Amino acid sequence: MHYDAIVIGAGLAGLTAVCQLIDAQKKVLLVDQEPENSIGGQAFWSFGGLFLVDTPEQRRLGIKDSKELAWQDWRGSAGFDRLEDEDYWAYEWAKAYVDFAAGEKYQWLKLQGIQFFPVVGWAERGGALAGGHGNSVPRFHIVWGTGPAIVEAFASKVLQASESGLIDYLPRHQVTDLLTEDGAVTGIQGNILENCIIRRGEESSREVIGTFEYTADAVVVASGGIGANLELVKENWPSRLGLPPKNMVSGVPAFVDGKMLEITERAGGRIVNRDRMWHYTEGLKNWDPIWKNHGIRILPGPSSMWFDARGDRFKAPNFPGFDTLSTLEAIQKTGYDYSWFILTEKIIEKEFALSGSEQNMDLTNKSIKDVLKRVLPGPPKAVQAFKENGEDFVIADSLKDLVDGMNKLAGNDMLDFMHIKEQILARDREIENPFSKDAQINALHGARNYIGDKLIRAASPHKILDPKAGPLIAVRLNILTRKTLGGLQTNLNGQVLNDEGNPVQGLFAAGEVSGFGGGGVHGYRSLEGTFLGGCLFTGLKVGKYLGTLKPVPNKAKAIEV
């Protein structure tokens, strides 16, 4: 019952590592605290976007990309400033990841049976100088089948191996401690949780029905981040982003609790870059929630006007889809934890998409017929459902009625109708010409020079107050928790390092718990499409490395009660 490797967490990083270990014919134990129907973890709920460089899909759309340009964008976004210490290995992982994204990643994914939607998305456009934050070109490749298709590519292999006895997979096994001996990690112990029948994503029972203890030559922590642990998010909230929000919605299920970070730290692992995190500014309260405080993110096009809680329009680069953390900082420094989009029906029908596999059933179900319906008049079905049922939407035929509705929804009278009208009129005057001094209008024209945006993501420039484009729509935007950018510091083999910078024998980490590599591969900012990719890459690296190691003689035992 002694294993070559134990993997903690059946999310995408853990599954990827296990698949490599299966190929290497290693004796593997995979444990996860959730039921089997939660295999794939957080990745299942994702939109399925992957960061790739110089692909056939890009070239077909006339996009000229290169590894050099991608590395320029990565460094400009990451802003690594702790290279002597906390960022040392993160920087090395970043270089390796960009090489992967521009090299073998595309063909490797194809070998796993993963296909892509033909239109490449343009996430995190930046809005500053060439060497600053953001993607210079569209790189957001949407998996055909979204998150579930990515999960299926790896979960099917793991489940088949489990059924045939090649590996052991134990759901409802919650790790509470890592076993150590002379400074080395030798196994795991924890609680067996009662079986429970729930929908994927729902909070599961924590009723303990037994305990377990297993040993191995290597333990891989692949347990995810802290996004659902709002207290931990607030505790680590960076002062540069202002005070932590009083109210946030959760973009991840309750099991993303960060508990393995503390457990691994107790065993000697070092956590770095705790103050780096990635939360979205365009969160909606889900009208049909699956988990507690369930939030959904708007994936916006470039046209909506963005106002703070007091009714002041945000300045560059704080436009929809341009610089997430810059906008988060601007919002938090207002002293309020919400903001507003003001837009038209013409904008929402083309520019609003919602994050999550369950909000994009046409792509998730791989229905070409349903995808083609997106070009028809009116918002996508999921967006329309939020318009009709979501508490964050206000719809009106006149701007006065719209502002009155916004004040009513916010429960205050902070928004002044004339102040908002003047700002919208000033913006609308800039639409008269195909050029402008307004940075957002220029960005909109620039976006429509890309055929992908012109077809499905950027509405034709028009005046917000044009009655023909109405009705008017306001959307209250909440802060939505999502990703942990810091984490366990690891070298390029995925070995967890201690406070002295030395590997903890027998201890490895992959995925979000390791900051997607090295304790913070993204630095301060993400280019998007890099979270799923980071899970895949770290799981691949750790699994390959462990697959090459010879078994360590060990007389330790496995006990389950």
UniProtKB/TrEMBL annotation:
Keywords: Flavoprotein, Oxidoreductase. It comes from the Bacteria. The keyword Oxidoreductase applies. Residues 4-532 form the FAD-dependent oxidoreductase 2 FAD-binding domain. Transmembrane segments: none annotated. GO terms for molecular function: steroid dehydrogenase activity, acting on the CH-CH group of donors. InterPro entries: FAD-dep_OxRdtase_2_FAD-bd, FAD/NAD-bd_sf, KsdD_DH, Succ_DH/fumarate_Rdtase_cat_sf. This is Predicted oxidoreductase. The keyword Oxidoreductase applies.
